[in-house]
Amino acid sequence: MHPLKGRRIFHKGVDLAAPYGEPVYSAGNGRVISAGYSPGYGWFVRIRHKGGYSTLYAHMSRILVRKGETVRIGQRIGKVGSTGTSTGNHLHFELQKNGRLLDPVEWFGGRF
């Protein structure tokens, strides 16, 4: 059940609770294909990686990279926040391969 909309909605990623302002790091080397603000995701960054993979980081309080920028694994790309459609400080993380959503928990071996 969506906490703000009061109905069942498919959740595209995983939400990781973290304190406001904590750094957000790139999960891999790649290029920023979009970075900005949307009503749902708030401040967000999407990165394209090799092999058809892409990652999305959302609800941030601040973004530290720009569209077209090359990023390295572990590079700071933003700060945790609660922007967009959000009920508290967290990072929303999505993983895709060739435009198809993957379960980040399975990909990272359930370490979340």
Tell me what you see in this structure.
The protein is mostly beta strands. It has a single domain (14-99), classed as Distorted Sandwich (Glucose Permease (Domain IIA)), CATH 2.70.70.10. 4% of the residues lie in helices and 45% in strands. The chain is built from 1 helix and 10 strands; from the N terminus they run ββββββββββα. The chain has one helix at 104-107; strands spanning 14-17, 23-25, 30-38, 42-48, 53-60, 62-63, 70-71, 76-79, 90-97, 100-102. Strands 1, 3, 4, 5, 7, 9 and 10 form a 7-stranded antiparallel beta sheet that branches. A 3-stranded antiparallel beta sheet has the order 2-8-6, with no helix packed on it. A hairpin with a 4-residue loop joins strand 4 and strand 5 (53-60). The mean pLDDT is 89. This is M23 family metallopeptidase. One of its GO terms (molecular function) is metalloendopeptidase activity.
What's the CATH H-level homologous superfamily?
Glucose Permease (Domain IIA)
Structural class of the secondary structure composition?
mainly beta
CATH class: Mainly Beta
Overall geometry: globular
Identify the quaternary structure here: single chain
